[in-house]
Amino acid sequence: MIRYAKDIWGETLKTVFSYAKAYKWPIAIALLLMLVELAVELIQPLVIGKIIDDGIIAGDAGTVWTWGAVMMGLALAAFASGITNSFFAAHAAHSFAFDLRAAMFRKIQSFTMSTFLRFPQSGLLTRMTSDITMTSNVLYMSLRIMLRAPLAAAGSLIMAFVVNPKLALFLMIGVPFLVIFLVFMVRKGVAMFGRVQRRLDRVNRVVQENLQAVRLVKAYLRGTYESSRFSKVAGALRSDTVSAVRLMELILPLLLFVMNISLLAVL
Description:
By secondary structure, the protein is mostly helical. The chain has 11 helices and no strands. Keywords: Membrane, Transmembrane, Transmembrane helix.
């Protein structure tokens, strides 16, 4: 059963992100520019080290100005790469969302009545609006931040071994703990945000039912009951959303804590 669910989940993701293939070149350019930004961040400490060791300590002003100019050029390259990356990432993500939403709308229009009745209208509204928006945001953030973080971590470890292999071994102590922690948090987060989506479906359903039957609600003086009913489902959505967001907010502090402990071990 679990394997079947994973297969369905994988096929769903494959189908959804197949609409991004039309924008493979903007995505590739955005990824390349992100790597340029990342490379500048990783090279910057080496340039600063050159300025201090060969320039300031040696009293060579020419070396300071030369490497300072190199550092300024790298900063400008990273700045230009970041702006251009945002442009291509936004273009790919929003164009992808437009195509996906249009395809979903056409698919819903082709439903037979029996097929249409299998899905609640509130769920279809959620899929067409917030779900596609969040999928678009995932693609955008992947091209801007999400893929950059693991690459930065891997690149930092590689540069640490280049600079001082012995001290870099201390940083490797926390890596297994970080991997286990991230896997656990991702699985927990997927489950919690899935529950948030179901709560959102329920809120949409209650709102839709009230709008469709607004005259009956007023005629039978059911306003107080419907208000309490909405407050209940909205409160459940708020509670689950806050819990899911707080769980995600724990990731960065705990990652920094482990990394700082590793640095203390080095010192």
